[in-house]
Amino acid sequence: MSVTDELKAAVQAQTNKSGDAGHPMEDFLRMDRIPHIWCPTCGIGVVVNCFARALEKIGIPLDDVAVVSGIGCTGRVAGYVKIDSFHTTHGRAIPFATGLKLGNPKLKVVVISGDGDLVSIGGNHFVHAARRNVDITVICVNNFNYAMTGGQMAATSPTDSILTTSPYGNFETPFNLPFLAESVGATYVARWTALHIHRQTEAMIDALTKPGFTFVEILAPCPTIFERRNKFGDGLDRLNYYYEHSEIKHGEPTANVDVGLRTKIIVGKFVDKDRPTWLDSMNSHLKRKLGDRFTPYEG
Amino acid sequence: MKRVLTGNYAAAYGATAAKVNVVAAYPITPQTTIVEILSEIVANGELNAEFIKVESEHSALAACIGAQSAGARTYTATSSQGLALMHELIHWTARARLPIVMTNVNRALGPGWSIWADATDSVSQRDTGWMQVYCENNQEVYDTTLMAYKISEHADILLPTLVNLDAFFLSHTSQVVDMIDQDRVDAFLPTYAPEYKLDIDNPRSFGSLTSPDHYYEFSYKMHKAHEAAKQIIPEVHAQFAKEFGREYGMTESYRCDDAEYLLVTYGTIAGTTMDAVDRMRDKGIKAGALKIRYFRPFPSEEVRSILKNAIKVGVIDRMISFGHEGAFFTETKAAMYGETVPLYGFIAGLGGRDVSIKDIESMVDKMQAEDPSNLIWIGVKE
């Protein structure tokens, strides 16, 4: 069987739930919005795929899930997934999600957004939602730059990385996102790369099923900008880089998991702890203070 | 030196020629290339300035306010949602009397998400105390940026200026721009030397609580500064014309003298309108165009003197003040109070929809037919 035939057979083997030959993700995506805008070998599609697999494995009805995203390449996720979704303003995905969760606590609220959106312009919301332990899952696709606007240096760009606003290399110190998330109170923190499709899917399942502010960082290739400007090749070359330079260290203190421009990348599950969620805290606190006069809020 | 520049690069080179000391900005489409080229100009050492890419537009203007208060000449650029996010500090800049110059690439606000031209973003900042200019071409962007510093920093004004250019029609479109030699710019625009600044040798405190005994007068003085600007802006324009040969006004008249049908507009639609005027003139229709450059301070007297002899006047707005009409239409009508010329308001090109010469010709047709009390929408898909 030639490679072409093999590919054809593989495509034919993928059928949607209606039994028609088609895109294997057809039940999860708004196909009328496809093709998407992401560049070839961009890592965001991998994350969407893994997220869909995670939801499928959990078996949660899609009607019970809402996806919120901000602005940027990853911000487009909300537009492509065929579940209730909200494409919010830049940086405000988490406060929108907080409101959504409080308005309907039965919803599984997931924020899928990029590093620029979540920890630069939206950084304040990130730290406060984690501090309060709002019961949402945040999946951050970190491609180390503001890709949608053409590749400006971001709060996550490794020192020395070359971007359009750092033509001679970045001299700032970037965020170490797992360290940030843990230090402000996230109950679950994991990092994987776009290469680790099974492990990131498992991490998403963990995060989606654990109460509280759960955080999964996925390092993803940005072939058009970050990889090109920093001479990492295309997205596939970058996946190979992840393969050669990733080291799995579950439980590693998050202070040690900085990502440099050409350093090894520590991946794994770093934090998994229990804390009452914001809603649980409010209900138990007011019950204690007010007794029978208080009816716990359940949405 | 003549170069082929996009509107965004013209803005960036204008700020560079003004020798700004601090640039703070955050990326947003379609402003981004302004910041990119400036970061490169600063990194190359072509401009002795500090460049910081901050974490939001709110922070960008805050950083400029801080730097300007310490005596630096500052610059930032944004667009749409970014300008909206700055809103709190846009008020602050003007009330602090800091002559900051900011480029705004006019872009529609979401939802639905749109990155295309629309003046709602800047018009929404109307009452902040900033001066506002709208540009028609890239040369105007460059020249206006330079003049904006001179005007803003004038001791009798001390107010910030927002220089507006239309998304993509100018921001990403290249035209020939005549750039001025640095020594001639320096002679035109001396080093920024504010009378009041944060100075460790002469400590001051800015931003204090202000009682009703004083707040009212602060506002009065800001308004007086806008009135003074109406006198000073033409003087700066005249000096610029004398030095560099390019003439500007708070408005620009095109074939208005004997015009019966006058169209008032701003930004890139003004250029299209002038072409439409030529075509209508060829057909024997006495049309004319009035481009409004300054929205604040609004040149009411000038507008009135130009429009009052027309038979009919139409105002084209690339924005709508919901529940009323286009903002430039409102201002024009107010300027024409007491005159008897019928005025028509046209809404066109929202969210970057193209406004063609034919659209503009159709406006004159409609002016001949429609009730002036009607707001006329051009090209609505019902």
Number of domains of chain A: 1
What does the radius of gyration of chain A come to? 20 Å
Q: What is the assigned CATH homologous superfamily of chain A?
A: Thiamin diphosphate (ThDP)-binding fold, Pyr/PP domains
The overall strand count of chain A is 10
Q: Give the proportion of residues in helices of chain A.
A: 25-40%
Helix content of chain B: 40-55%
Determine the CATH topology of the largest domain in chain B: Rossmann fold
Walk across the major sheet of chain B and give the strand order. 3-2-4-5-7-6-12
Shape field of chain B: globular
Strand content of chain B: 15-25%
Order of helices and strands of chain A: HHEHEHEHHEEEHEHEHHEEH
Main pleated sheet of chain A: 8 strands, mixed
The global form of chain A is: globular
CATH architecture of chain A: 3-Layer(aba) Sandwich
Q: What is the fourth-level CATH superfamily of the largest domain in chain B?
A: Thiamin diphosphate (ThDP)-binding fold, Pyr/PP domains
Number of helices, counting only DSSP H or I runs of 4 residues or more of chain A: 11
